[in-house]
Amino acid sequence: DGGITQSPKYLFRKEGQNVTLSCEQNLNHDAMYWYRQDPGQGLRLIYYSQIVNDFQKGDIAEGYSVSREKKESFPLTVTSAQKNPTAFYLCASSLQRAAPEQYFGPGTRLTVT
Amino acid sequence: GQQLNQSPQSMFIQEGEDVSMNCTSSSIFNTWLWYKQDPGEGPVLLIALYKAGELTSNGRLTAQFGITRKDSFLNISASIPSDVGIYFCAGQGAQKLVFGQGTRLTINP
């Protein structure tokens, strides 16, 4: 089955620790995205990547970092510099950057205490 | 930046009723998408609209791309319990996908 996987589903960390969220896709999509979702709000773009070894900041990139070493993988690191990291994180992919249809993974809920 | 206003924010309906929701923007979009999100899951793409005036159906769901290219509408006919969730509109502008705040649909049996 083709799709996007995110792991883990739930993640708990202490304040001051960096944490990396996994995102893998086997759809052969070129573009991948990370969004943050807070209760009662829409999705906000953190980072996106159009192609391997290239990525761009989205609207709320501060305190986050990404890498795109393989087409299938786009991990997100939430650093200790992110002031309010507790949120639901969603990874998505699209065939190309210009293709509007984005397909989402199941999400990772990160709780930092 | 570009923003979408989605309304209503929440709806409480009886099973079997029809549902209507919409999104409006001050900016023109080239594509409109509608997603449904179940609690604790990622959004699932329901319908994509590619040109002004387009009307597209997916089962009991019907969506329209507004003629001004600044709005879109989603209708659900004869609602059933599994329609419960949050519905998001998204507009594709020049650079990125912009999401509405969501409409939370609750169905009373």
Describe the structure.
The complex is a heterodimer of chains A (113) and B (109). Chain A is mostly beta strands and 113 residues long. Chain A has strands at residues 4-7, 10-13, 19-25, 31-37, 43-51, 54-57, 64-66, 76-78, 87-94, 103-104, 108-112. In chain A, the strands form two sheets. In chain A, strands 2, 4, 5, 6, 9, 10 and 11 form a seven-stranded mixed beta sheet that branches. Chain A is globular. Chain A starts with a strand and ends with a strand. The model of chain A has no long low-confidence stretch (mean pLDDT 94). Chain B has no helices and eleven strands. Chain B has strands at 4-7, 10-14, 19-25, 31-37, 44-49, 55-58, 61-65, 71-76, 85-92, 97-99, 103-108. In chain B, strands 2, 4, 5, 9, 10 and 11 form a six-stranded mixed beta sheet that branches. In chain B, strands 1-3-8-7-6 form a five-stranded antiparallel beta sheet, with no helix packed on it. Chain A binds chain B through residues 4, 6, 40-43, 45, 48, 58-59, 90, 92, 100-107, 109, and chain B through 1, 4, 6, 30-31, 33, 35, 40-45, 48, 88, 90, 92, 96-97, 99-102.
